[in-house]
Specification:
With 435 residues, this protein is an alpha/beta fold. It folds into two domains: 1-326, ANL, N-terminal domain (Rossmann fold), CATH 3.40.50.12780; 330-434, ANL, C-terminal domain (GMP Synthetase, Chain A, domain 3, 2-Layer Sandwich), CATH 3.30.300.30. It has helices at 6-9, 13-34, 36-44, 66-71, 105-121, 140-152, 164-174, 183-196, 216-226, 339-350, 379-383, 389-404; strands at 87-92, 98-103, 129-132, 155-157, 178-181, 206-210, 229-236, 241-247, 254-256, 261-266, 279-286, 297-306, 318-319, 330-332, 335-337, 354-365, 368-377, 409-413, 428-430. Strand 8 and strand 9 form a beta hairpin. The structure holds 5'-O-[hydroxy(phenylacetyl)phosphoryl]adenosine (DLL).
């Protein structure tokens, strides 16, 4: 089993903690000196960077949240002048506004190394041909894996997402050996490959899948339909992108690269750090990021950490598959979607035609997520014989697409037809069963 950076990946826990503390102190100082929002929060608590004398002291430091990225949009949380920023990436925020992050040259190097550690850990080498069907663009998936593949010297097919038949033909023609995409798209590709009867023409040996929740039964299905080994990769835009944590050949949880990212598990309601082995919300502190450091960043992903040493020899702890979220974010066809974004579009485009009663229905058919938004029309619109409901549906569909970046089917339904709840309105019905 190959290591990309054997020394770092196999440091003893004591050595690793020493590296973490040194780096943490520098990261906190750098962030305090350069990011006003963080400095104010530390000052409010009467904390100075020098007060962080041990890893445990991190627990005194204030949390940061996705909302901060919106409030300081676009560059208010950057810790470096734009002159030193080489790249931006972005993803959905809790409302219409995107959240934006930046990378210095060193940050891009760190990112490539973290994701490349995984490729090495699952046996990928410079002999391989890597088919990257994650989206390229502001989403971190495409460029993230691309950087990792180049780092280990493999050849990359930067095909990005879409056009399934062309994807399959390209994999066959170019002799791709590694497939990288979302697990739901891998399922779809597998199905199509078998429908076309071309499985024996593929040279794929393994795949790197993440960006959305997926189950062990999906893994089995992908492995069977494509004849490969399927591995899980985790990450989020705010922390760096794909490669914050990844599986090794043992498939026994995803190693969090702890020399770059310090993980805590907290109670999402009280914010209290939970004892080792507990299930709770995952919180990350970056240790080496320059342009966009994150300190105690609340991921909202619910999971558990495994501290037992892994058979592969890596000492970095492992996270289990996220078991859900502590907020209402949905991941639909790999895109992060918040119900509040949808609500905002509905309010904005309503013009008296709609009522505030709506329901989002997400399902998975033929391995592709379906996404429907049902909205009750107003009594006036219902009674209006002239205006076309279809036109209004089209207008809202277009607006949703431009805000969310993916298509939803919008249905205007009769007034009072959406079931009322006695407590909180049930806005989302997710039938996918992914956890
Ligand atoms: O999804 C980064 C990524 C790209 C990861 C490609 C892996 C592969 P965001 O769009 O910011 O970043 O979404 C981050 O997606 O907080 C999780 O809720 C979810 N997520 C990411 N990877 C996994 C995974 C990218 N392996 C959010 N399993 C995270 C379950 C995942 N959920």
């Amino acid at each position: 089993m190959a290591f990309l950076n054997e020394r770092m990946e196999t440091l003893s826990r004591a050595e690793l903690k020493k590296v973490q503390l040194e780096r943490l102190q520098k990261e906190i100082k750098r962030t305090y000196d350069n990011v006003e929002c963080f400095r104010n929060r530390m000052d409010e608590k009467g904390l100075k960077p020098e007060d962080i004398k041990s890893l445990e002291d991190l627990q005194k430091v204030p949390f940061s949240y996705k909302k901060d990225l919106r409030d300081y949009y676009p560059f208010g949380l950057f810790a470096q002048p734009l002159k030193n920023v080489l790249r931006f990436h972005a993803s959905s925020g809790t409302t219409g506004k995107r959240i934006v992050v930046g990378y210095t040259k060193n940050d891009l190097e760190t990112w490539a190394e973290c994701a490349a550690r995984m490729l090495s850990a699952i046996g990928v080498t410079d002999e391989d041909i890597i088919h990257v069907a994650y989206g390229y663009g502001l989403f971190t998936g495409g460029f993230g894996i691309h950087g990792a593949a180049e780092k280990i010297g493999a050849a990359v097919i930067p095909i990005s997402s879409g056009n399934t038949k062309l994807q399959i033909q390209t994999m066959i023609d170019f002799g791709a050996t590694v497939l990288c995409c979302t697990p739901s798209y891998a399922m779809h590709l597998g199905e199509e490959v078998n429908r076309m009867g071309v499985k024996d023409q593929l040279k794929l040996k393994c795949g790197v899948f993440g960006a959305e929740p997926w189950t062990e039964s999906m893994r089995e299905e992908i492995e069977k339909s494509l004849g490969i080994k399927a591995y899980d990769i985790y990450g989020l835009t705010e922390v760096i992108g794909p490669g914050v944590a990844c599986e090794c050949e043992e498939k026994a949880g995803m190693h969090i690269w702890e020399d770059h990212f310090l993980a805590e598990i907290i109670d999402p309601d009280t914010g209290e750090v939970l004892p080792e082995g507990s299930t709770g919300e995952l919180v990350f502190t970056s240790l080496t990021k320059e342009a966009f450091p994150v300190i105690r960043y609340r991921t909202r992903d619910i999971c558990r950490l495994e501290y037992e040493p892994c058979k592969c020899g890596r000492t970095h702890l492992r996270m289990c598959k996220p078991q859900g979220r502590s907020d209402d974010m949905l991941i639909i066809r790999g895109v992060n979607v918040f119900p509040s974004q949808i609500e905002e579009v509905l309010l904005k485009t309503s013009g008296g035609d709609l009522t505030p009663n709506y329901q989002i229905v997400v399902d998975r058919k033929n391995n592709t997520d379906t996404f429907d938004v049902n909205v009750e029309m107003s009594e006036e619109l219902f009674a209006d014989e002239v205006r076309s409901i279809e036109d209004i549906e089209k207008r809202i569909t277009a607006e949703l697409r431009s805000t969310l970046g993916i298509g939803a089917k919008v249905h205007l339904v009769n007034p009072k037809s959406i079931e009322r709840s006695e407590g909180k309105a049930k806005r989302v019905i997710d039938k996918r069963n992914l956890h």
